[in-house]
Amino acid sequence: MADSDTSTPRKLLPDEIHRAVGPGTALLRLQTTHSREGVLDGAWWPRSRDVATELPALIQALTAHLGPVTRVGLDTDAWEEVPTRVVVEDRVVHVDSFPVGDDTVLITRGDKDHFALLVVPPDTTPDAARDAMARAVDAGNLTQAAEILVATPPEPTTGSEESG
Fold first, then answer.
1. How far apart are CA 103 and CA 75, in angstroms?
2. What confidence tens digit (pLDDT) does each residue in 106-138 have?
3. Residues 73, 127, 134, 148: what is their CA dihedral angle, to the nearest 10 degrees?
4. What is the distance in angstroms between the CA of the first residue and the CA of the last residue of the chain?
5. How far is it, in rounded angstroms, from Cα 30 to Cα 67?
6. How far is the CA of 111 from the CAs of 47, 69, 137, in angstroms?
7. Cα separations (Å) of 157 from 19, 39, 53, 125, 154?
8. Alpha helices in 25-137 (DSSP H)
9. Which residues of 91-129 are buried (b: 16+ CB within 10 A; e: fewer)?
10. What is the model's pTM?
């Protein structure tokens, strides 16, 4: 059996993934089916809530897989200083404010082709992020982004022990 014939291991992201990838790298998983019948089309795990830093890498990755992205919709309350547009590889991508919550980003390709991506919080542990991203790209997923994240909450970043 050739290596390409073996099944892909469940854990596709290495531990401590945010330190393992270089700056400007988008951590993204997309559904691999053409049916797009699930609630979500993929998942994105940004390194921070700085959308001006994170969005260009996401747009580059999506453009490589889907073609040119024209608009991004996100909840501006969930991000730091959201611009109205970003320029990526000499293309202007408009950034729209939608009350979708901090768990979803909407991507528009062309005029009416929309993709909904789960946004995994930056401080989520690698195991929880892997699980949430895998659930989001499952072709039969009928679970909303917020419900997926409730099942895989981020780890506290400071003082995980409570004083008694």
1. 9
2. 999 877 788 889 999 988 888 888 888 888 888
3. -60
4. 56
5. 14
6. 29, 10, 23
7. 15, 30, 21, 10, 9
8. 51-66, 126-137
9. eebebeeeebebbbbbbbbeeeeebbbbbbbbebebebb
10. 0.73
